[in-house]
């Protein structure tokens, strides 16, 4: 591990200028539009925008221009354009909208209550992905202060990521001139297998949000009177779910959702399994006696990164347990969160699921399946040799251990869009979402010591970008 003036600079800037701002940021319940349809009226998004703009004002980068996108009816967007003296453009990405609260926060902690404990800053949105803007500015600033030559850098921060980035395509068009043609994309919204090295994300799963509703009666009736004659909407929904998912194994039965897993991804999964082993499945808050779906770490990695899965995330038509009466309910509705393999076609998957669920309804029940908010996954292009060695060198320098490459199970819709728009670009997708950091769940935390080292790694990679020799986009 190297402790140099860059490390010291970054550490101090984090302690004095980033952590206090993230504390303020965590207090603001800036839920993404999907979870706060009245976000505009509620004003939390505006409060976060103003917090970010005020901070950018207080920490200016020489020559930089800050653009604020405010397209009508859309969430805002921030673009910071920092001129550079070297060829090429680097696009740095992050988001400032948040997931909803969730239950299960420890005593004294909560989504909107910032708590610093053992170097971890607890609270919603600090790690996913509030730190990204501030860490990006910190990295660029450190380069300027250390006299390291830079390419042009564009920092793009959106406010609708957790809703599937619906507003982003319009802004990419709107800020076409500012974004330019990125040669390298740095995304700080991803995961880490541990806190001991630099991790690069080689693939992301796609996602489909859906609802499945089964109606059997015009209103609820006495269950003693009707059961035996009127089929339960819950049982009908169970039968429908059996069509799309094997209840015994969890395997998705709709073939349109499966893809061939590339050999390179299988061998990367084996390498990660060899390095962190049981930690792959061990990071979850298991209850006593509970077992994982598979026992081989390499297979677990592939299952969470390259195979489709269905999670049931909401229900309507069923009262809370204490309010449940002896009634045969008129309908049951479920909310589904479907993760798709990186290279699966989201639209095709949505259609296949809908057709499978709605075909030939049991007892003639009214079945309505809707899948929307589709976001394509992403499979990284091969790493250019300069980037591969830059990641390895940065990891060794800042952590004293080798970098590792792994797919992630989550979704960042923008990466698929960028890859389609800029097929020549290289990607460094990384982040601070390591073991137990629990983005989207209770007790989300930002591992501050890791975030500092990651910021230094970003500087190392940007510096290597300036020295790169290989690749089609090496410039003149
Ligand atoms: Zn995120």
What this model shows, in words?
The protein is an alpha+beta fold and 476 residues long. Helix content is 37%, strand content 20%. It contains 15 helices and 18 strands. The strands form 5 sheets. The protein has a 6-stranded mixed beta sheet with strand order 1-2-6-3-7-17. The chain has a 4-stranded antiparallel beta sheet with strand order 11-13-9-14.
Provide a brief overview of the structure:
The chain has about 475 residues and is α+β, with helices and mostly antiparallel strands.
The count of DSSP E runs of length 2 or more, i.e. the number of strands, is 18
Morphology call: globular
Strand order of the largest sheet: 1-2-6-3-7-17
Bound molecule types: zinc ion
Q: Give me the Rg, rounded.
A: 23 Å
Level of helix content?
A: 25-40%
How many angstroms separate the termini? 34 Å
Number of helices: 15
SS-derived structural category: alpha+beta
- How much is the average pLDDT? 94
Q: Please indicate the percent range of residues in DSSP E strands (runs of 2 or more).
A: 15-25%
Biggest beta-sheet profile: 6 strands, mixed
Uncertain regions: pLDDT < 50 for 5+ in a row?
471-476
């Amino acid at each position: 591990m190297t402790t140099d003036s860059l490390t010291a600079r970054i550490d101090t800037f984090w302690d004095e200028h980033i952590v206090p701002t993230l504390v303020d940021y965590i207090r603001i319940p800036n839920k993404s539009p999907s979870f706060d349809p009245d976000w505009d009226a509620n004003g939390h998004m505006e409060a976060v925008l103003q917090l970010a703009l005020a901070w950018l004002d207080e920490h200016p980068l020489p020559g930089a221009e800050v653009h604020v996108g405010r397209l009508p009816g859309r969430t805002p967007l921030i673009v910071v354009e920092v001129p550079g003296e070297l060829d090429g453009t680097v696009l740095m990405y992050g988001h400032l909208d948040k997931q909803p609260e969730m239950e299960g926060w420890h005593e004294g902690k909560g989504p909107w209550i910032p708590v610093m404990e053992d170097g971890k800053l607890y609270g919603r949105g600090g790690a996913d992905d509030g730190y990204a803007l501030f860490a990006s500015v910190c990295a660029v600033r450190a380069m300027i202060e250390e006299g390291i030559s830079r390419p042009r850098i564009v920092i793009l921060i959106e406010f609708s990521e957790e809703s599937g980035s619906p507003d982003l395509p319009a802004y990419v068009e709107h800020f076409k001139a500012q974004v330019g043609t990125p040669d390298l994309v740095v995304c700080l919204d991803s995961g880490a297998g541990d806190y001991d090295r630099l991790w690069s994300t080689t693939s992301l799963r796609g996602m489909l949000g859906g609802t499945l509703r089964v109606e059997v009666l015009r209103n609820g009736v006495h269950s003693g009177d009707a059961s035996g004659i009127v089929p339960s909407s819950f049982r009908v929904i169970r039968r429908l779910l059996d069509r799309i998912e094997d209840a015994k194994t969890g395997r998705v039965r709709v073939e349109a959702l499966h893809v061939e897993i590339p050999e390179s991804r299988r061998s990367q999964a084996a390498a990660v399994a060899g390095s962190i082993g049981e930690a792959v499945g061990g990071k979850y808050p298991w209850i006593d006696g509970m077992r994982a779906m598979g026992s081989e770490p390499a297979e677990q990695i592939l299952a969470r990164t390259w195979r489709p899965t269905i999670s049931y995330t909401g229900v309507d038509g069923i009262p809370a347990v204490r309010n449940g009466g002896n009634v045969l309910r008129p309908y049951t509705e479920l909310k589904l969160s479907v993760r798709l393999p990186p290279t699966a076609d989201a639209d095709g998957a949505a259609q296949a699921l809908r057709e499978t669920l709605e075909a030939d309804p049991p007892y003639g029940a009214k079945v309505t399946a809707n899948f929307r908010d589709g976001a394509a996954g992403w499979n990284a292009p091969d790493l250019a040799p300069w980037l591969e060695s830059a990641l390895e060198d940065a990891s060794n320098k800042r952590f004293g251990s080798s970098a590792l490459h792994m797919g992630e199970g989550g979704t960042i819709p923008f990466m698929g869009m960028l890859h389609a728009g800029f097929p020549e670009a290289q990607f460094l997708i990384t982040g601070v979402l390591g073991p137990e950091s629990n983005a989207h769940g209770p007790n989300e935390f930002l591992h501050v010591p890791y975030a500092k080292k990651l910021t230094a790694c970003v500087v190392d990679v940007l510096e290597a970008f300036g020295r790169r020799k290989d690749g089609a986009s090496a410039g003149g």
